[in-house]
Amino acid sequence: MLVMKFGGTSVQDAAAMRNAVEIVSSRLDRAPIVVVSAMARVTDMLLRIAEAAKVRRLDNALSMIEEVRDRHLTTASELLDGTELLHGVEREIEKRIEEIEKLARSVSTLGELTPRTQDSIVSFGERLSSVIVAAAMREGALEAELVDSREFIVTDDRFTKAAPLMEATAKRTREVLLPLIKAGRLPVAQGFIGSTEEGVTTTIGRGGSDYSAALIGAGLGAEAIEIWTDVDGLMTADPNIYSAALTVKHCSFDEAADLTLFGAKVLHPKAIQPAAQKNIAVHIYNSKRPEAGGTTISAEPVKCTNPIKSIAFKSPVTIIDGSPLKGQRFISADELLRAFLEALAGRRIKPLIASASASNVVLAIDSNELRHGGRDLIEAVSNYGTASAEDHRAIISLVGEGLRRDPKLAGRVFKSTGDIDLGIISHGSSPITMSFVVAEADVEKIIARLHKTFFDQVDPNVFE
Fold first, then answer.
1. What span, in angstroms and rounded, lies between the C-alpha atoms of 462 and 278?
2. Beta carbons of 427 and 393 less than 8 angstroms apart
């Protein structure tokens, strides 16, 4: 069995969907299961619809719903015109659009958008695209069968960022999908969405379709998980920042996990864990260039003469710099750090970097996860110390198994960045990653310098 996930740009229009059908057709002998994202930009549109309804701009919301409707109907018509399948697909699209309209009207009447309702609205991106993709597969003579991921991706009720219940999800995945596969059918499922044990729709976070594919692959014990996207695989740097970036042909689960944690956008950070636990290789391919080699992520790294595999960056980042209280009530830096971590846990936020010296605490936190620029977090620990927040920062991370055996790596980094101020430097929490904080404005310049330093010559077995 093979799980194949197609991202938003890989199903963004009729041409992309036809291409996806061809790619799946080439792997029919491996019993594929297809997972699809919403069409490109549709999730953002649905979020705007929800926000417009919340502030009672119902006309605006309904106008955007009409755009979503027209885009999906047009794509279906281009793919299925003149076939018996088209009318059925059109009916399903219209039915789902009516549901979105009802939700938008309800939100507008109440003037309130709960996380639960937001998940219901946003879930329609995948629920619409998968209807068209499954029909396109059938029109392409594939025995495709549309399945509802909410029947087997079981989550908690933390709406907008629900956590899958692993055992329940694995059990339900086998119960729902294995009979179809054994009957020679091709399941087409939605990424990103699930449901609580009570059947309430949830989403598992932006970019969660990769995670869905990994959960399905782990539940079924698949031979491999393929992530089809719009780049050639993991790169030595973000090609939008450094155009001369190379493709990384091989990396380990650990390397991929650290790269995605620190900003590599080609794969969802949580997608590695289920695959690694079951030792299922993950392959990243470009749906626009299926002939390209892509990236293979597996348990054992291929021997590489370069000390690092890639340079990742994360921004925007907020730096919290705190000092414990002194005087009659002495507080240690460790106690202040513990107070910060407890406050963050209560907000379901995990710091990217956390360190404490004898006299102060420093945290690096994803700015998008903080409210009010960190002021509420600082207030929450005011009984333990004082702190300040610094925005517009970024974390640059060098990741590679070779860091374990390169004593000169830090010196090469400092030589490349000698005239640039570096903030927190973290090398030790992960033996294969060195991270440091810089101003957002310096990211492009630093990555260009580091790339020239570490990838001036490359191992052809690992990079291309």
1. 24
2. no
The string of pLDDT tens digits covering residues 57-91 is: 999 999 999 999 999 999 999 999 989 999 999 99
Give the span between the Cα atoms of 288 and 133, in whole angstroms: 17
Whether 45 and 174 share a structural domain: yes
In a domain, 244, yes or no: no
Give the integer Cα–Cα distance in Å for 211 and 7: 12
The number of residues making up the chain comes to 464
Distance CA 41, CA 291 (A): 26
In a domain, 462, yes or no: no
Residue 381: helix, strand or coil by DSSP? coil
pTM: 0.92
Bridge partners of 3, per DSSP, are 33, 225
Identity of the residue numbered 170: A
- What CATH number did the domain enclosing 103 receive? 3.40.1160.10
Q: Which amino acid is at 174?
A: R
Distance of CA 300 to the CA centre of its chain: 23
Single out the residue of 64, 24, 35 nearest to residue 126, CA to CA: 35
What range defines the domain where residue 349 resides? 310-454
How many CB atoms sit inside 10 A of residue 123's CB? 26
